[in-house]
Amino acid sequence: MCLPPRRAALRFRLALLAFAAGVLLLLLQAPAASAVQFPPPQPPVPAPVVPAPPAPADPGPLQPNPGAPAPASPDPLNPPAPVDPAPPAPPTDPAAPDGDGSVVINGPNGTPSSAVVTLLGITLLTVAPSLLLMMSSFTKIFVVLVMTRNALSLPSIPPNQVIAGLALFLSFFIMGPVLGDINSGAVQPYLDGDFTFQEAYTEAAGPIQQWMLQFTREEDIALMTRAAGMDNPATPEDVPLTTLIPAFMISELRAAFIIGFVIFIPFLVIDLVVSSALMSMGMMMLPPVIISLPFKILLFILVDGWGLIVTALIRSYA
User: Fold this and answer.
1) What spans are recorded as compositionally biased (Pro residues) (predicted)?
2) Predicted TM-score (pTM) of this structure
């Protein structure tokens, strides 16, 4: 059955009041144990007390020693007389050296010390390239090998390192007897202490000078002698090294250019033949070097070019 609106609203209010009264009774009847219990505060723990170190006793005012004499007080009316300072000590004479003052660079038994040998070795390594170029067969061999490479139209094959290495070992092979004489006649006696440095230098210059005189033209020696304004030497052995070395290099370059000219001739003929053939066929735009290069290499291999050149170079110093 439907109630009127007023009675329905009144009934709802009554139900709401009854519900609020029941909740209030439940709250009032709740036991005290359900409340939140907090632990009682603990009293703070006192920090341990560290006893302070005892203060040093006050010594009090210093008391004079009755047995010690009282310090003399300066008299302002009678000051002490000034005292002259002691004169400086006279200088002493320098101690005389034990020896004669010379520096000894040799070791025991007259042999050179290791420091001197090391210094000479470093110096030799510094000037070795110049000595190799000026006083050996390296110059002529290197020039001939480079001209052979250019005649083959191969500007970078073989490379410079290979040519220099081949020229170096050929020079050692050619000058082996001379180097052996220098080692046995000058280097070893100097290391053993039998020769001084000047004597070793004189003995070492003899074999190399004789060897260079064999392959130096008289015209080149005369040229350098006139350029230096010196008189003509009486014998070839009287030619100084300062004149002999440049004359030897000029002679070596002249001989190298002669050998290089002879090597160039067959390859020049191949270039002329190839160029004429290309011109006759009307192939003027084709570079002759591309066509002649295989024929040059073939000819060089067939005649054993490297063997012929090395043999000719070695025999030129025989």
Assistant:
1) 41-94
2) 0.59
